[in-house]
Amino acid sequence: MAKITLKQIAETLGLSIATVSKALKDYDDVSPTTKAKVKALAESLNYKPNFLAQSLRNQESKTIGLVIPEIVHHFFASIISGVINAAKKKGYLVIVLQSSESYEFEKKQIELLLDKNVDGILVSLADNTVNYKHLSNLIESGFPIVLYDKISKSVHCSKVVINDQKAAFNATKYLIDSGCKKIAHVRGPLKPQTTIDRFIGYKNALKEYDMEFDKSIVFEASNLSLENGQDIAKEIYENHKEVDGVFAFTDLTATGVMTGLQKFNVKIPDEISIMGFSNWLITSITSPKLSTIDQPGFEMGKKAFKLLYKEIQNRKAKVEVEFKTVELPAVLVIRESTR
Amino acid sequence: MAKITLKQIAETLGLSIATVSKALKDYDDVSPTTKAKVKALAESLNYKPNFLAQSLRNQESKTIGLVIPEIVHHFFASIISGVINAAKKKGYLVIVLQSSESYEFEKKQIELLLDKNVDGILVSLADNTVNYKHLSNLIESGFPIVLYDKISKSVHCSKVVINDQKAAFNATKYLIDSGCKKIAHVRGPLKPQTTIDRFIGYKNALKEYDMEFDKSIVFEASNLSLENGQDIAKEIYENHKEVDGVFAFTDLTATGVMTGLQKFNVKIPDEISIMGFSNWLITSITSPKLSTIDQPGFEMGKKAFKLLYKEIQNRKAKVEVEFKTVELPAVLVIRESTR
DNA sequence: CTGAAAGCGCTAACAC
DNA sequence: GTGTTAGCGCTTTCAG
Q1: Beta-carbon separation of B77 and A88 below 8 A
Q2: Could you tell me the pTM of the whole model?
Q3: 3-state secondary structure A164-202
């Protein structure tokens, strides 16, 4: 287990360290015989280059950072998985850090990663991040950063997002097509772009189909809990009898609304259709099973890494990098909570 | 953003690199005046030591590896979160890798981590890992490894586990105490210790309360799906009418059994009590809400890191390391699916 | 109190 | 073809 170094190989073979190094890397200027000898010995000794030394020398660590708002979260966990998967294929390892939706943490985590000499960072903005200096400074200085999921239009870099607006549009359209006449929306907190986009998609669909937009049936979830959804259900049941469809910005809230309505003996989907968003595990456990929109987390993680990887390569090759934004399609998953 | 090095500070101050290095680390043999000067400049230049260089020099990377069977999994995600959290407090970063329950991957991931010079590794065994050479060799060579959750008794190192046996005992006991006369068990695949322990706990409780152990009502889940649970429900409903309680080794399966039984109009919990295991998010969404056992994933992650950290410290200080196994209590969470 | 020097392990330009 | 040398940035004896 004692680490084998080039030096040891060189010594036992009576060669110089440099030659050994070059032999191992198949440089043309090493004789085939020496190459063979060196490789054989390296193999038998199970030589592994010291990554730290290599990194120090090459100024690259083959490690990237991943800043994620919440780890214990189906969608984000899928992203982590996708990133790690894609990274592994290119010989990169990933350091995962959690911002807990806090701007302060986010900033600190990024610094930690920089201190560790990661080659690039993948970031999903914390909900309360409003200042983007910590990112734009980095990007301007030429450091590879890719934003995923929760992005900001004011940060100039590559991004990968789900087309929330379109997805929300389609979800609402589906409700309309299936006969809903009065569709309520439960939106998330004001800040994240995703929430805004889902709201816009909802509004656009109403407009497109000449349905009146009624502010009084747009509810804002104060937190991400089942109970909160149930409170909203109560509000709908008591004050908005005309509602026959609900599009909620996330599955848990949708589930809360559904179970809340069921307590009042409202029949789902016969009386009210419910549409969620995210396609979490819970959607197939509810009764009826929740119709929702699938967010391709794994794909997103993969794509985000690929963008970052390309940027790292380009930067290394001094090629002009151009930022691009990739939109991943989110597909409707129709189950039983919609007509 | 251009990286500041000791050299630059030394040059602008007309000092030697060595002195600057020492000043920054508060060595006693540097005059207070120089210290002050150096620190002031370092501060204003926002000097950050180069981690790679430090690591190479000090032979420690302040990074640990975490090998996890599945990332997209509530319990494991909590563990990741706990590990990262605890690690951060000690200035450690964590590289996450997924074994996907494959022995081959597990082995490879560990090698990758070693190549990256991590200071220690946290491992939860893949279900199909049967050979522990890759671990025991490492451990014998003095490399810090801590096993968590899915462990093996044949690997000699520190471990942190949930007392599955006791938890299962308590779960079964609860069913008995609440009046169940014939309790079925749905167990997991034969391999992982957790599955075995839960089964043993179930058996022990039966014995303790003088209830007959009946092999015909112990079912083995072939996979971790809702459908599989439902198939078992069918089997119970059709061939084991006397069953009035089910203890399943995991929540999803329990939910499957519950919804499966409900399809036959079996009243839960009046006719049959259902007890799950894990306390996933889904438990509070089912109807009735699932009684279960809470597995403290976050705590486990924290504890696992702490054990590893201590071992790293001890190894560095050449202190004799002694392995210990920490058992975390899992608590019963009684909801509505049990009487 | 300060600095020169060696070295962690590896790479690459340059000489031989 | 092979080896020498310098150096990535830092730490730590050991001289001065």
Answers
A1: no
A2: 0.91
A3: HHHHHHHHHHHHHHCCCCCEEEEECCCCCHHHHHHHHHH
